[in-house]
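S.,

Sequence below, as promised.
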Amino acid sequence: MKKIAVKASKPYEVLVGKGLISRCGELISEVTKTKYAAIITDDIVDSIYSKDVISSLEEDGFKTVRFVFKNGETSKCSDTLNRIYNFLAENNITRSDCVIALGGGVTGDITGYAAATYLRGISFIQIPTTLLAQIDSSVGGKTAINLSCGKNLVGAFKQPELVICDPLTLKTLSPEIVSDGMAEAIKYGMIRSRELFDIIASHSIDNYFDVIDDIICRCVSIKSEIVANDEFDKGERMLLNFGHTIGHAIENYFNYTGYTHGSAVAAGMHAITEQAVKHSDCSENCLKALDEVITSYKLPLVTEASLDELVPLCSNDKKCESTSINAIICSDIGTSSIRKMPFSEFKKYMEA
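The prediction came back faster than expected:
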C-alpha cells in the first residue's frame, strides 16, 4: 500500500493498493470516531461492491445504511441531491457521523457536495472505483452538481477524510470506461510530467494494467502538489482544466449522453492544442504525440459538433471570469500555462 499526503487546509491521505476495499472498515476507523456511516453509490457499483464494503465496515463495528441512485452523469443533479438529503435525515445521520462515496466521479461529486452542505457539513470518505475518480475527481475537494446550462456550476470545496484507491476495481470496468479515465491521466502528463506522459504512451488500452499503480500514484502526487499550492482554484490549479473548457461544452452540447467525460476532455485537449499550433504557441510534434496517445487509448480527437457550435457554450463554463476565460495551453509535453483572454479573443483563437 502506498500513501500520498494531500496538504490541503484539512490534510488527509490517499491510499493506493490492490485489495484495499476489503480492508476499508479498518482504514476508515483510523480517521473517524463514528461507527455509523451512510454509503452513497450508484446501481452498477452497488451490485458489485456494496456487499464487500458493508461486510468490511460491519466487521469493524460500523452500522451502515445505503442510498442507491441510477448511474450516469444525468443523475448529478438537484433532484438526486435532494433525495440524498432526505435519506440522510430520515436515517438520523448527524454531524458526528459520516458518508462514504462508493463509485466513480459522479458519485464522489454529488456525495461530497451533500456532505459539504447537509447539516452545514459532515465528514465523508471517498472509495473511488473508476480510474477517472481514482486519479482525479476524488482528490482535491471539488464537489458539485450540474445545471441544465452547464456542468459543475453549483458546488463547494469539501476535502474528504480519506481516499481509498483499489486498482483491482478497474478490472470490472469496460475498456471504454478505462479509456475515459486515461484521458485525465494523459492530461496530467501534458500539463506537468513528460515522464508520466511517456509511461502512458509506451502502453495502450490493452496493457495499461501493468503500470496502473504507478500511473495512479503519479497523477495523485501531481494533483496533491497543485492543490497544496492553490486549494481554491484561484491560480495554478486552473492548469488541471486543460482540455476541459471545450470538453465541458461537448458534454453540454450532447446533454451528457453519447460522450463520456474522458472522451469529451480528449477531444478538448486536441482542439485547444491544434489551435495552439496554428498560433505558434505549440509545436506540431507535441500535437502529434498527443494525438497518438489519445488514439492509442481509443479516445476521440473530434466529435460531431463543430467548434463554431461548441465555443459559444464555453461562456457558461465555471472557468470564465466576467467577460474573460482562462484558457489552458500546453507549449510542450509537461509544460502548461494559463492564458487569460477576453471571451471574444478566445472565440477568435479557437476559430483560427
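The first helix runs from residue 24 to 29.

Coffee later?
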